[in-house]
Amino acid sequence: MEKALYRWFLKQRQKNYPVNGLIVKEKAKFFHSKIKETQSDFNASDGWLQRFKKRYGVRFIKISGEKLSSRPELVDPFKNKLQAKIKELGLSHDQIYNADESGLFWKLLPDRTYVSSQEKNAPGRKTEKQRVTFLACTNATGVHKVKLLVIGKAKNPRSFKNFDSPVDYNCSKSSWMTAAIFKDWFHHSFVPQVRKFLKDQGLPNKALLLIDNAPSHPPENELRSDDELITAMFMPPNVTPLIQPMDQNAIRLTKFFYRNSLLASIVATGTDVIEALKKLTLRDAIGYLDLAWQRLEKETIAKCWTNILSSIEDEKDCDEDIPLATLRERICLPINCQQERAIELLHSINPEVSFSIADINEWTEDFPNSTETNEVLTSDESESEDSNLERPHTRIEPSEAINIFNKALEWAEDENISPTDISVLKRLREKAVFSNLQNKKIQKKITHFFQ
To answer: Which stretches are tagged as biased composition: Acidic residues (predicted)?
Structure first.
């Protein structure tokens, strides 16, 4: 019966039909009634379903809505069109840009963070669902990351008083992108920033911006600089999830960085999670979001352009002969690191609740790199190497450093220190948080308990 059920399941998935647990159980009852392997009643219980999934390696995941409607057959014709456009304009990869927007629930934490193992639910607790939209834009080499555009609901947020925002801020009634906001961003932010970058790099004053055909994007003829040297080009419908660079992990990684900075700030303050979220302002969220954007490395961004630029490379890619599984692992490595960090931070906030990778992905879908992780893990090792040097003071423990950075951040806010410098303090505080978590994991010697 189960073999027949599994064959049926595979056929449904080949057709991209959604299959949930209830459907599987009902179909199992149907096959059992037809085959009748045993005379006993078969109820298709939840326990049987779990065992069936384990035996056949079946897992239930969230449906990716856009990819089901994607049309891969349109990808190659667009690549050829893009290739011709780049040759016509004589552009290098430094002069090709992509912009895409995404929503961010900047106060939202996983629901399970707020309940203990003894609680079955959290009645009467309101979920924080304040939302902003942010627009991410980079060039194909990842060398130039355009300043983020953040769209909120408030025209003049109270927390913005005496605040020199590190991002461009705009507003709409729904905090969503509109054609007017995108057009204003293109002419008054994107074009000036691109011109400055090209001038600094000694490149010709011309560039191409690739965007999808969302209703909130104005027509191409309205997205041209005054000298018509910086223009926009629309991608065809139903191919953007497959090849749009910002959709190939750039935005997702930015959200991971933001989430982990948010969690680290909650751990650092040592206050109740709910109270910490109440004190979180849009000003704080923008600071964490800008910090997350700055953490995105140019090598990571360049990989996001592989799908769309693969057919216009002049030289053979050195990765061509590497197995697909290895390439996928390399691309996903930064995300895997951030998933592990998020789980570790959530566990430190609420040790009684366990989280899986699927939980983290669902949380970020509303959707510090591996080098930084290594720096944190080896901080104690570096310290031991310098232990022979004379020091005028004793070593500061990570927990003490966290308190110091908290005080420094309060002072910086009062003194209206630049957002760039404040981001540095927040980044150092996050390192101290992770270092403190690693120290707690070190197993103590038995002699420690007799001191």
So the answer is: 378-387
